[in-house]
Amino acid sequence: MEKSKLSTIAIIGLLLINIATLGFLFLNGPKERNHPPMDRMRPKDMIIEKLHFDDNQQKEFQKLIDWHKKEIRKNDETIKASKIALYELLSQQVVDVKAKDSLILVINTHQKEIENVHFKHFEDIKKLCKPEQLDDFNNLSKELARMFAPPKPPRGRND
Asked: 3-state class of 50 per DSSP?
């Protein structure tokens, strides 16, 4: 067989394979989803979807979110300022134990307040639910600790 005839057959064969591959990918490739997977959704969107909130519930939910963020931010700022003051005590020749304990108590108090704000936030979300949504809320409440837990550290590190 001549080299040009062999080259022509090879080119046609490769072209057919490429067309078949593209056709397969086009017909069987990833399907576009209406919603991202639950584990990649923002908590707000996941809650709206899991509880099947209507438009009015979503508007009220946004008000709850705004209040929640404001309260958390206020407590976080106090904690941050208290931690700065706490660790500045280390620069003293002799650490004032009463000041240290007082600052730690402030941090603990505001951390406790953050947990109370989180809990109240979800109590308020529950109040938004219609009777037919309460089962969905109860299922969601079982996932809350997992959803809002800090991320696990990478495995295999011995720090």
From this structure: helix
| Residues sharing a CB contact under 8 Å with residue 47, sequence separation 6 or more, in sequence order | 53, 61, 125, 140
The ranges assigned to domains in the chain are 1-32, 38-148
Digit-coded pLDDT (tens) for 3-47: 777 778 878 877 778 787 777 777 776 555 555 555 567 888 989
- Alpha carbons 143 and 141: distance in angstroms, whole number: 5
- pTM of the full structure: 0.66
User: 147 φ, ψ to 5°?
Assistant: -65, -40
For residues 127 and 63, is the Cβ–Cβ distance under 8 A?
Answer: no
Report which residue type is found at 70: K
At the top level of CATH, the class of 38-148 is: mainly alpha
